[in-house]
Design a protein that fits this description.
D-amino Acid Aminotransferase, Chain A, domain 1; TTLL_monoglycylase; disordered C terminus; ATP-binding; about 850 residues; TTL/TTLL_fam; protein-glycine ligase activity, initiating; six-stranded antiparallel sheet; alpha/beta
């Protein structure tokens, strides 16, 4: 059987209660910062004491209940338990009614004293009334818990009143912490009130229910940010390493959904976090070192089921990851055909038809002539062009050596027969006649394949080896022969220049460049001199498609070094076609000085991936940077120093704009018309000696990594400006576009013709008598006025008409015979005059004009063809 608790036990219990209360007060003080942040009224010390007291009573109830269960006192039945509970509530009701009566009496006494006494007396007796109120506290809805605790104390003491009084009169020491001072009311008139009196605003609040607090919820804040980004269409994904794009979007308040191939995920720390769930990641937010990274990962996981608004990728997988049936995501690529403007084959085909799409001052393409070498390609036309270019090159070689005197042109010890000069001159003259469409009225004989084969052998000996022509046996004056050769050559070359735009840049070496159609970074490129080598490379690689392009032998050089220009441009919309040109560009130099006698890739291929292999080699001009790059500002300064300060703004930059615009217009029907697509391209240009830009190729996915100090500065800028165009300017057409300039925009949206459309022709059937000839209606007098001819006379009249027709036919036949006889005579005279050097035997007036031009005049007219080589002499 359990014994009744002694006085010492009660004292120990009360001391424990005081400790619990002190602990509760400390907890309240620690949480005072959250109370300050709330918009509620400040809580007084009395309210805090009531909260602590209620918490202590709850703990005491639990402890007493545990002791009651553990005691050996047996409970006979459920009836005893119900009776005990009923007695407990009766005692609580009695105590409550008694306290209400005492409180009402205290209020009446206070009102009487206020009516009888003056203000001074009322102020003196106010503390007494408050003291009585303190001894008799108000009974509020929250005090039921307190009364139940008193009934449990009666089991141990047997005197409920004493216990209730002791508990009610418990006092707490005044708090001296900053929490108690901050929660004091700011009204100075109430500073003299007793500390235990509650504020009026708190009388309606239950003393046992703590006030609500604003709890810091980091996950909720992050969810709000993600929801706001989805609403504002500011979510993105980047596949690949593009930190400049990521910085630009994050700066604008966008949120990233990480792609699993993200480079940062591969390091150990982030890789460990990436596979955690949200609950684990929220727990890591307390670590300040990784909190920002963890926040990004949480946002990415919250966006896992959301299709982003912008997707940056270098592959076509983006169209699978972002289907249009959910959302029209902004994608940094266009779907296009394989043989489009970004392929060497597509640009080659576009250059042939570019004259149909030229717009003066807007679109005009300059592209070296090229041919597709594969099964069913342009091999036949290339072989013909190679031979004709060799013939022109031989004539240019004669004029060049006549000016510079580097090699002999003809002598008695020469090894090349003079007949091959006549062959080259004749074939070039045939080309001029075809361009003038004179082949319509007369047949021009084509040279045979074996004739071209023999001529190319002699051409290689003359141009590449240095051999010269052999004078005829009956000719002893070599100077006269050379003079005649130069006169004929100069005349024909001047005629060719008017019909060949790329005449001046071809040179005289007949060098071609062979490129695979689907390669990049300078892989698989061959620089070729001979036709046999070109055809052999193509034959050994039957599975590869090649294009052969005429090499620009006379480019504009800087410090005797070859270079090309990489120009960025942006297509922000395909329908209508919208082209933006970047105002800045950069130059890529080769690592060796220019030399056509050495065809090594370090001299002729300016691609950065090729030149990085030869940066450490000597032979480069010291004025060229070690990383072989200039920006457009340095290029303009160089042009200004050599006397062309305005050539870039007036010739080079406008020429590049026209070439890019013409190339895109030629292929606009091959670009996907999907909305919300854009793409950045890199166009490669070469300048001729006259500063005319020639478009070599257009590259999709241009290199934008910091491979050199110049690239590390320019690439982030161009990517930042791309975001300005496709994000800022797309949402606000007055937004800044950086260094991008709008150069072309279609007035109307281009609608591609559907070749599979079903056409239908409708109409009505013809009547049965539609084809019958209607009889001519005439009056009776007119029919009577016709003469009735005799049948025999009508037959004679018809015979006379037939005789006249035959006479006219005979005259036509006689005229045609005479014309053909005259033409044959002229052709025979022309052939004899071309074969004979003696002027007196040439009767053709067209050939006689060759000898009316002096040697000095011919040299001055051909000054544009021949480079200024006097420095070398």
């Amino acid at each position: 059987m359990s014994t009744e608790p002694t006085l010492n036990d009660r004292v120990q219990e009360e001391s424990k209660i005081f400790k619990v209360i002190e602990n509760c007060r400390e907890v309240v003080q620690k949480n005072s910062f959250a109370l300050k942040q709330s918009s509620r009224e400040p809580i007084s010390n009395a309210a805090l004491e009531n909260i602590a007291r209620d918490m202590a009573y709850v703990l005491l109830d639990l402890k007493k209940g545990i002791k009651l269960i553990k005691s050996n006192k047996t409970i006979n039945s459920n009836t005893n338990v119900l009776e005990e509970i009923e007695n407990t509530y009766k005692q609580q009701e009695m105590a409550k009614s008694k306290m209400d009566v005492e409180q009402q009496n205290a209020k009446k006494q206070t009102n009487n004293n206020n009516n009888k006494n003056n203000k001074q007396t009322n102020q003196n007796k106010q503390p007494v009334a408050n003291k009585n109120n303190k001894a008799q506290p108000r009974i509020e809805p929250g005090n039921s818990q307190r009364n139940r605790s008193k009934s449990l104390d009666s089991k141990f003491s047997g005197n409920n009143k004493v216990v209730a009084t002791n508990v009610t009169n418990m006092t707490f020491p005044q708090e001296k912490s900053s929490t108690s001072r901050n929660t004091q009311p700011k009204n100075n008139s109430n500073d003299n009130r007793p500390h235990s009196s509650p504020q009026p605003s708190l009388k309606k609040r239950s003393a046992s229910i703590p006030p609500s607090r604003e709890i810091y919820n980091p996950l909720g804040i992050i969810k709000d940010e993600v929801a706001r980004a989805i609403r504002d269409r500011k979510t993105f994904t980047i596949k690949g390493f593009f930190p400049a794009v990521r910085r630009a979007l994050l700066k604008r308040g966008w949120i990233e959904r990480f792609h699993p191939s993200l480079k940062e995920i591969n390091n150990n720390k982030i890789k460990e976090f990436y596979h955690m769930n949200l609950t684990e990641l929220v727990g890591l937010l307390k670590n300040k070192e990784i909190s920002e990274t963890v926040k990004k990962l949480i946002k990415s996981k919250l966006l896992s089921n959301n299709q982003v608004d912008l997707y940056w990728d270098n592959t076509y997988d983006v169209f699978k990851d972002c289907p249009d049936n959910k959302k029209l995501t902004l994608i940094n690529q266009f779907r296009r055909e394989a043989a489009s403007y970004t392929s060497k084959q597509g640009l080659c085909q576009a250059a042939r038809d570019a004259h149909w799409l030229q717009i003066p001052g807007v679109a005009k393409i300059n592209h070296p002539r090229c041919y597709l070498l594969c099964k069913g390609g342009d091999t036949k036309y290339f072989v013909k062009d190679f031979g004709l270019t060799a013939a022109m090159s031989l004539l240019k070689w004669i004029v060049k050596n006549n000016v510079t005197g580097e090699c002999k042109i003809a002598s008695s010890t020469g090894k090349i027969p003079m007949s091959y000069f006549d062959f080259a001159l004749t074939e070039c003259y045939k080309y001029v006649k075809r361009e003038k469409h004179q082949d319509i009225d007369e047949d021009i004989r084509e040279a045979l394949e074996n004739e071209w084969h023999e001529f190319l052998k002699q051409f290689y000996k003359a141009v590449h080896v240095g051999n010269h022509f052999k004078l005829p046996d009956d000719e002893l004056n070599a100077a006269e022969v050379v003079k005649t050769m130069v006169r004929k050559t100069t005349y024909v070359l001047n005629e060719i220049r008017d019909h060949m735009p790329c005449f001046d840049m071809d040179g005289y070496m007949n060098i071609w460049i062979l490129k695979p159609t689907n390669s990049s970074r300078g892989e698989g490129i061959h620089i070729c001199r001979t036709l046999e080598y070109i055809l052999e490379v193509v034959r050994k690689n039957p599975n590869r498609r090649y294009i052969i392009q005429k090499y620009i032998e006379r480019p504009f050089l800087i410090h005797d070094t070859k270079f090309d220009i990489r120009q960025w441009f942006l297509v922000s919309n395909s329908s209508p076609l919208t082209i933006w040109m970047y105002k800045l560009c950069y130059l890529r130099f080769s690592s060796q000085t220019y030399n056509l006698n050495n065809l090594h890739e370090s001299i002729h291929l300016t691609n950065n991936s090729v030149q990085t292999k030869y940066h450490k080699k000597t032979g480069r001009d010291p004025l060229i940077p070690a990383y072989c790059m200039w920006d457009s500002k340095e290029f303009k300064n160089y042009l200004s120093n050599i006397g062309y300060p305005d050539i870039y703004e007036n010739v080079i930059y406008p020429g590049m704009k026209e070439c890019i615009t013409a190339a895109m217009i030629a292929h606009r029907d091959k670009i996907d018309k999907r909305k919300n697509c854009f793409e950045l391209y890199g166009a490669d240009f070469m300048l001729t000696e006259s500063f005319q830009p020639w478009l070599l190729e257009i590259n999709s996915n241009p290199a934008l990594h910091a491979s050199t100090p110049l690239m590390s500065r320019m690439c982030p800028d161009v990517l930042e400006d791309v975001i300005k165009v496709v994000v800022d300017n797309a949402r606000n057409n007055r937004a800044d576009t950086g260094n991008f300039e709008l150069v072309y925009k279609d007035k109307l949206e281009y609608q591609k013709v559907n070749a599979k459309a079903q056409f239908e022709v409708t109409g009505s059937p013809l009547t049965e008598d539609f084809c019958d000839v209607a009889a001519k209606t005439s009056s009776h007098s007119e029919r009577n006025s016709f003469k009735q001819l005799d049948p025999s006379k009508a037959l004679l009249h018809t015979g006379e008409n037939m005789k006249n027709a035959l006479k006219n036919l005979l005259k036509i036949i006689k005229y045609e015979k005479h014309k053909r006889r005259t033409t044959c005579k002229e052709q025979s005279i022309e052939v004899r005059s071309m074969a004979d050097i003696n002027i007196s035997t040439q009767t053709n007036s067209e050939i006689q004009s060759l000898y009316q031009i002096t040697l000095a005049e011919e040299s001055s007219e051909y000054s544009v063809i021949i480079p200024d080589l006097r420095k070398n002499t």
